Amino acid sequence: MFVRIIMGSSSDVEIARKVTSNLSKFEIPYQVSVISAHRALDDLQALVGQDDADVYIGIAGKAAHLPGVIAGMTIKPVIGVPVKSSTLSGLDALLSIVQMPKGVPVATVALDGGENAAILATQILAVQDQDLSQKLAAYKKELSAGVRDMNNEAAVQAL
């Protein structure tokens, strides 16, 4: 079980931290790299060619071709995280990742959605791992409890 996180630029490090923080909660091994699909394609091909990851997470802004290029190189699941990094407020990145050609899917999360990328990767891995599945179930219960707490606080404040 291993997730490979690839950023298109070191400017995406804050999003990568959101991913790694959540993967660490579930004790999922990962590796983070910075490789531009446009400026270092040979390096990207070499890394993806190792075929050692179970899931890839590509983090990219602007033209945001990185997740799609990764998806074109592997049969493993690829999750794209569009980054809000340009004058178009991330819309360019979102559209670049979500509009993939037929046969080359990339699961796309929200702009700057590193947390959800990690959770989605965890859910993919949990299909074959009962312990991880149980950790996810507990996590979902924590989310529900947090919402109930917010509801109780809001109800008290409204009185």
From TrEMBL:
Belongs to the AIR carboxylase family. Class I subfamily. This is N5-carboxyaminoimidazole ribonucleotide mutase. The keyword Nuclease does not apply. Transmembrane segments: none annotated. It holds the Pfam family AIRC. It comes from Aerococcus viridans. Catalyzes the conversion of N5-carboxyaminoimidazole ribonucleotide (N5-CAIR) to 4-carboxy-5-aminoimidazole ribonucleotide (CAIR). GO terms for biological process: 'de novo' IMP biosynthetic process.
